[in-house]
# Entry
Amino acid sequence: MIGPVEAYRDFGLQDHSCGVHGDPGDYRPRLAEFFREGLKRGLRVAYLGSGNVGELRDHLDSLVDIGSLPSHGAVQVISFDEIYGAGKPVDPTEVIERYAAATQEALADGYQGLRISADVTDLVRAPEQQDAFARCEFLLERYSSQHPLSAMCEYRLELGDAVTQFACMHAAVPAGLTPFQVFACDDGAVGLLGEFDQACQVAFERALQRIQPAPDDSQLIFDMSAVRFMDHHALLSLDSYAEACQVPVFARSMPPIVCRVQRELGLEHLGQMHPGDL
Amino acid sequence: MRTGAARGQVGHFHEAGFYGSDTEFRALIVPFVEEGIAAGEPVIIGYDGRKNALVHSWVTDPSAVTFLADNSLYATPARAIAAYRRLFELHVARGAGQIRITGELGHPGNGGNFEGWDRYEAAVNTVWEDFPVWGLCLYDAATAPAAVIDVVERTHPRIVSPSGTRHANSRFQEVADFEALPPTPDPLEDTVPTIELVDASAAEARRVLVQVGRGHVADTILNELLIGVSEAVSNALTHGRAPSTVRIWATPDRLVISVHDPGRGPADPLAGLVPAAGRTATLGLGLWLIHQLDIDVTLKHADDGFTVRLRGDTTMG
# Structure
């Protein structure tokens, strides 16, 4: 699922979605639906949070009627400390390696994949934690696009505008939360979606800082087929990104209205990938 | 090394002349061209088809002259400035000591539109200062309207007569002091707009323009207007004063959009005609981009504020 989310149901095995709630009561039905659907699809579901296993089970029980869910390994609770590390700065690469390991473990145990959800508000409250966490979201988006890991990341409204920097790194977000999204395409390209103009320029530049080519990639491709508008500020930012990136950066499927601006700017570093190019 | 009247000069040697007949036109242009050919300088000529043909028949070696038959170079003032810059860069890279260009802009007297080109004539006194260019602008005094003649006199530091005499022009205004012609009002602007938005975001302005404007002009022109209104609104919100107002008039074959704010607008007289200095400086790049579009663009400074007017119609695209 890519784009604005109207209803939180029918998520696939590799969907990475963002949810925002003010009251835990708003998260509860989404979580229950997400987990029930996952179990029906033969997935292991895991609830992440702060505290020990017992506390997390109690918390999950308070959110979802756990009694109605099967147990014996299909429903897990995982401490944030186990994934994000305890008392030290978050290392995005290590975080994704732990998610990957948990996903592989679910597959090895006979499940179709892993489905996770957490209210991560407390992990991103401190500004100094936000950059690393947003990088985690991008890596999670990329990993889930190619592996059977589906995730519903919840943020509370009390974070204010800070929410959008995480939301824009999900393929599926609540409608109206962010004017643009960065998502992972099936073939490894980085998809851009929505409208990019002066109003969200700072947010886009911040998002770009969190996008890295995968370790083995010899190039990075931005797929722009879902871009509805992009002004000269955003195009120049992409060009600057391409200049600084350690691998060649290309744009593909640029809509005509973006091509028009790009043509006048004469970008020096952002390559163009045309149909038929390898 | 530069030759002729521009010998020893630096940058753009900008000169105007007025003629009342083909004989006077010949007296003004032939020495300019022949001197250039003899010196091995690039000579570029941009008149209408009839005058280009006359010059072709008058000069000794027309093959040594570039005749601009394609008027697309003059699509907009900003594009003409940029296109000539690229041409000059090419000739300088090839070793040209001087580049001679001569032409006559379109105006109502020769079937053209002079709106916006007054700023071009003023701007080229500074924007080509990096190049050894001799620009000779010859205007037909019998057909050019008085307002055009007035602008020509105020934008050229030197005047040459058909007899060949040259003198410094006492009416010349430096670009910073140049008083541009007032833009011609569009009759639609005196009517109630189809829609009016106050303090709208650029995204909202684009959304409404698509709703109101789709089907009235070609999709390519609607895209040009969308780019233009987005840049104009972003500028108004970033550099102007609140409230900003977007007005859209839609007729079956035309779209007129004004983006107004009560601020003073850009102080730079070259705003929109050349990109801002430095690729990272985005100030001024939006206005420059607007001026590259295939639509009619007008900047209006008035007591009540600054307005960017964009117009597209079914004859475009």
